[in-house]
Design a protein that fits this description.
This protein is an all-alpha fold and about 110 residues long. It has six helices and no strands.
Length: about 110
């Protein structure tokens, strides 16, 4: 018979294994969220229902990685750059920080 601490260790190991496997299973969904994919809900539903098949999992992963993402309107980008310019004029941002953040906004 196993001691109570050994039983607890086995339970903790199994719980950790389940958490890791769930994370791996939902990697396509996590990537879709990170990339702000337009079809994030559809990706989640297909990943949840059909992801257990390896082929569908890889297809959903490829779909999540493609460039079908939301783009910011040009006016919104311009407003953000104006705010950055104001921060730079106040001395809150250096020239390098301003250029880095401006490029990030323009490339998003």
């Amino acid at each position: 018979m196993m001691s109570e601490s050994a039983v607890n260790a086995v339970i903790a190991y199994r719980f950790l294994k389940i958490i890791i496997l769930l994370f791996l299973y939902f990697i396509p969904f996590c990537i879709a969220i990170d990339k702000k994919h337009k079809d994030v809900l559809t990706i989640f539903i297909i990943n949840l229902s059909m992801g257990w098949t390896i082929i569908v999992w890889f297809l959903v992963l490829a779909w999540a990685c493609n460039g079908n993402t939301y783009k910011k309107p040009v006016a919104e980008k311009a407003d953000e750059i104006k705010k950055l310019a104001e921060l730079k004029e106040k001395g809150a941002l250096t020239e390098e920080e301003f250029n880095t953040q401006k490029n990030q906004i323009l490339n998003s």
